[in-house]
Amino acid sequence: MLIQRLTIIGVGLIGGSLARALKRVGACGEVIGCGRNKANLQHAIELGVIDRYDIDPARAVKDADMVVVAVPLGSMADLFATIREALSPEAIITDVGSAKASVVADAQQHLGQHFSRFVPGHPIAGTEKSGVEASFAELFENRRVILTPLAETLMAAHTKVKTLWTQTGADVVSMSVKHHDEVLAATSHLPHLLAYNLVFTLAKMEDRIEIFRFAAGGFRDFTRIASSDPCMWHDICLANREAILQALNQFNLDLNQLADAISKGNSQEIENIFTNAKTARDKFLG
Amino acid sequence: MLIQRLTIIGVGLIGGSLARALKRVGACGEVIGCGRNKANLQHAIELGVIDRYDIDPARAVKDADMVVVAVPLGSMADLFATIREALSPEAIITDVGSAKASVVADAQQHLGQHFSRFVPGHPIAGTEKSGVEASFAELFENRRVILTPLAETLMAAHTKVKTLWTQTGADVVSMSVKHHDEVLAATSHLPHLLAYNLVFTLAKMEDRIEIFRFAAGGFRDFTRIASSDPCMWHDICLANREAILQALNQFNLDLNQLADAISKGNSQEIENIFTNAKTARDKFLG
């Protein structure tokens, strides 16, 4: 069996789905859940997602050979500090955070001798829903999981975490921390900011009821990600702020140019932007 | 029968779907298509969308009791001027343009004595696809259609166009031209600009292949509208530029504030924006 005792800290959409996916293929023995909300953990047992739980992270990781940390980015440092002394000397630790530099810094500072067995990870999967109720075993099938191992990471730890994710049906790739954070700022973090900001702007307008009443399918799709968990996204914004602000800056330069073209009735420039965008989207995502 | 002879100028997604929907319920007799592309019109006959076609708009509207103009906004003025002399003195004319003030101005200037039988309209329906191949009879079911009749509009014309859309399964409402253009700038035109602009920005980045490779479902949904027809959206941007630039300006003020909050690590403000947005979206579109 790949994992004898798996501890999942943060049994929500991602942590819950991972437990379900690994149980389904018999890749793990006992699954211990950990979190701050007893009712949620009890519910996770009832759903068959975990076998038992402990709300004390130090007790929850005891004798676990694999620890998956699925808490918001802002809670990583404290969590690592809390489990450090309780971790087994062979335990492999991984996380599922949407930004990697901040987690790596937290782990380096707080995991001590366990740092070489820490493999930073990020499954590119999810929905706008959150919580263990929203979890399902198929979430990672044919999705990509990015691992960002460091020079100090033990090959064996990297291999085991890679195997773990492969068992869920995901396609696992590795890249540098910096590259991950830049790519995700562009494709995920920036779009979330824009969607949140658009809904925020419209919700303040006087005729907001009319506005949302006449929103069509395009608006619904465009703003779906604005229904994501605000706390999680607050943490991502701060954890990856440099790369996000850089991507936002490039976006704004182009947006100002587009606004200027519209204002001046510069047809050629407007069509150039729209046509380039459509061509790129159809080519890469069509 | 509601309509004896229906002429549809511009047999694409919207025009084609309208013809299909009206034929399905037997609401119209002969359907004449008109457009600049013979092959497309021939294809529309083969698909059973229209009965015959004429590429000359003046000939196409002859003896029609209902003329639906489904051409890009930038082509409206010329089209109205072209059909003016050929229109029957009883013909009712309507359009499906995404912005209304510009169409109304064009109609007022070029439709002459027919202006009182012109009913500006806008079905809030569509997909990112275009062309008659993408048309289907169910497109307008349970969707909203906005009519913006003017003080000069004949009640009988308004009623007939309202009935036409009701027959397609749509929910028809009326509002002022100005209100329509403001609401649509906020819920449709601005999101299209943002989606086009984001894909444009990312497509210029050096690691664009990686970026699109790691784009998840959220990005796919967010950018779906960037696959829309660039020419049509160019025309909308110019036709409704004032309302669009105003909505964009409000969006930018909020976005700058959000960027500032992220840059300064102002958690309370970030959470406030995200939570407000999520609450509004879940309430109005959830």
From TrEMBL, chains A, B:
PROSITE patterns: PDH_ADH. It comes from the Bacteria. Residues 4-286 form the Prephenate/arogenate dehydrogenase domain. Coiled coil: none annotated. Keywords: Oxidoreductase. The keyword Chloroplast does not apply. InterPro entries: 6-PGluconate_DH-like_C_sf, NAD(P)-bd_dom_sf, PDH_C, PDH_N, Preph/Arog_dehydrog, Prephen_DH. This is Prephenate dehydrogenase/arogenate dehydrogenase family protein.
